[in-house]
Design brief:
Largest sheet: 7 strands, mixed
CATH architecture of the largest domain: 3-Layer(aba) Sandwich
CATH superfamily of the largest domain: Vaccinia Virus protein VP39
Number of domains: 2
Structural class: alpha/beta
CATH class of the largest domain: Alpha Beta
Number of helices: 8
Distance between the termini: 59 Å
Number of strands: 13
Strand order of the largest sheet: 5-4-3-10-11-13-12
CATH topology of the largest domain: Rossmann fold
Shape: globular
Radius of gyration: 19 Å
Strand content: 25-35%
């Protein structure tokens, strides 16, 4: 066998063991791994399965974990001059496919405050030749300008949050700059369709409440919102009800996400 075939066979064996292994076995496999390049649907991504659930899933299954949600968004932006606001971009699991699917003149603004994940996101932007489409904003969106503690949870960088992480689950944190979403909404003037995807581990209301409140007096709204609703119990407001009251209709729930389209 050729060297790359041997490597592939070994990797497939590790994946099989990981799927059926005990937590101890999975920890041993994680210790053996490093960054791996995965290809799917003409997309290339370098992922590190050791410390991020999303990257582990891409390594294990060959595609991002929230595939139904991703495909629904791809359909919305395909061949359109779209602005995508990816709030909580992680390694680029949504950023990269949406940037590749959208039409001429499109822009993806990828918000990712975790310094480690910014590097991984930037690499995936580069290897897919998207440096002229994707702009990375290394800040956390919130309700104000300033700074906040980004808290790390366990060994999963994808669960970093501005929300407090309790007890031994907290694995340190880092100060990051914060900015309100309204600083970025004027970019939609140059595009035919604006999609907002948000997954910030329970801090969604901090980002969206000001925008939804301002919309009551004629403020800006995107054309579509995909929001993670797994942590809705942490919101201080009923964010889904506010989205509906702002003129959206819910068109899908899948994989812990809800998709809303603005009624025209």
């Amino acid at each position: 066998m050729m060297a790359d075939q041997i490597k592939k066979a070994e990797m497939d064996s590790l994946r099989a063991r990981f799927r059926t292994g005990s937590p101890q076995e999975r920890a041993k496999i994680n210790a053996m791994l490093g960054p791996v390049e995965i290809e799917f649907a003409d997309i290339r991504m370098v992922v590190d399965p050791r410390d991020n659930y999303t990257e582990t899933c891409i390594w294990l299954e060959g595609h991002p974990p929230e595939l139904k949600s991703l495909l629904a968004l791809v359909k919305l932006v395909e061949q359109r001059n779209a602005l995508v606001l990816d709030i909580g971009a992680n390694c680029g699991a949504f950023t990269i496919p949406l940037a590749l699917a959208s039409g001429k003149g499109s822009r993806v603004i990828a918000f990712e405050p975790n310094p480690i994940m910014i590097g991984r996101l930037g690499l995936n932007v580069q290897i897919n030749d998207l440096t002229e489409v994707v702009r990375i904003e290394g800040c956390a969106l919130s309700d104000r300008d300033g700074e906040a503690m980004l808290n790390f949870r366990g060994h999963n960088y994808g669960q970093a949050s501005l929300k407090e992480v309790q007890g031994r689950m907290r694995n340190g944190g880092t100060l990051v700059p914060t900015r309100p979403l309204r600083h970025f909404t004027s970019a939609s003037e140059n595009h035919d369709f604006t999609l907002l995807k948000i997954d910030v581990e329970g801090a969604e209301a901090l980002v969206l409440d000001p925008i939804l409140d301002e919309a009551k007096s004629g403020g800006w709204l995107p054309d579509a919102i995909l929001i993670e609703v797994r942590h809705a119990q942490q919101w201080q407001t009923d964010l889904c009800a506010k989205i509906l009251a702002s003129g959206f209709e819910e068109t899908m729930q899948a994989e812990g996400n809800a998709l809303y389209l603005l009624k025209k």
